[in-house]
């Protein structure tokens, strides 16, 4: 892949670590597809990338609606005939004691942090395969909690941290599963915990004192996205820059199969 020819979609790049990743990729010469739900902040990032000599376009979509995820995938396919890197970064943190639902009636963190990325990736796979070698990076977290398949929508004993942690583990389970499906296609997929308590909106909203910088997290995301050392490596989970083990449920094929079947159904992809 020629560094200057890369086309990269970074979801949730209007704020936090996603914004830094998008700027860094723009500065490296990539065509950055900026995504967010706030047009004004998206436009400000596109202008910042352009002012630094880069190339960027904005896609506005609220990932709490699967119809908007589909619209986003359509818009990306209409804009470009190649996609070298997809970074599923958008997410909502742990703050809030009240259970919330997405536009489709699913538990909100499961829907935005996991299911939206699951559907977006599925819809963009043909484009990624046609652009191989291509990479998918799922920005998960070290905060992980096994999914209770009897109550995935957390209708009982809801709390924000549990919702966040199960959605992050779901991303990792999806990564492991998708990696085997993609074997031999030239498309790799890896997940990571970028850094612990970066100084971002979601961390401040949770009332936590930040412990690391967004630059540190961006470095870890970029490692999976563009480092030559990761070429051909797939299905892995990284803690920062180091390969690590995720929660045991990520390595349970039966649990992954259950999640996959449920996700296909919830995302309307079941045939
Ligand atoms: N911060 C940490 O220490 C930490 C640690 C581990 C993992 N992570 C992961 O890193 C990723 C980025 O987090 P961050 O800390 O940079 O958070 P952040 O500053 O709060 O940024 C989150 C991004 O996601 C977007 N987003 C949220 N809900 C959305 C929705 N419904 N539709 C579309 N976009 C939506 C936000 O858009 P708006 O600007 O419109 O809100 C924003 O661009 C997340 O996946 C998070 O779980 C973060």
What does this 3D model show about the protein?
With 271 residues, this protein is α/β, with parallel strands linked by helices. Helices cover 43% and strands 14% of the residues. It contains 8 helices and 8 strands, in the order βαβαβαβαβαβααββα. The protein has helices at residues 16-27, 39-51, 66-79, 108-130, 160-181, 201-205, 214-226, 253-266, and strands at residues 7-10, 31-36, 55-60, 85-88, 134-139, 187-193, 237-239, 242-244. The chain has an 8-stranded mixed sheet with strand order 3-2-1-4-5-6-7-8, sandwiched between helices. It is globular. NADP nicotinamide-adenine-dinucleotide phosphate (NAP) is lined by residues 12, 14-18, 36-38, 41, 62-64, 89-92, 112, 139, 141, 193-195, 197-198, 200-203.
Amino- and carboxy-terminal Cα gap: 34 Å
Q: In DSSP terms, counting alpha (H) and pi (I) runs of 4 or more, how many helices? A: 8
Succession of helices and strands: EHEHEHEHEHEHHEEH
How does the overall form come out from the CA principal axes?
Answer: globular
Q: Report Rg.
A: 17 Å
From the structure provided, what is the oligomeric state, counting identical versus distinct chains? single chain
Average pLDDT, rounded to a whole number, is: 96
Q: What's the β-strand tally?
A: 8
Ligand types = NADP nicotinamide-adenine-dinucleotide phosphate
Specify the helix fraction band.
40-55%
The parts where pLDDT drops under 50 for at least 5 residues are: none
Strand order of the largest sheet: 3-2-1-4-5-6-7-8
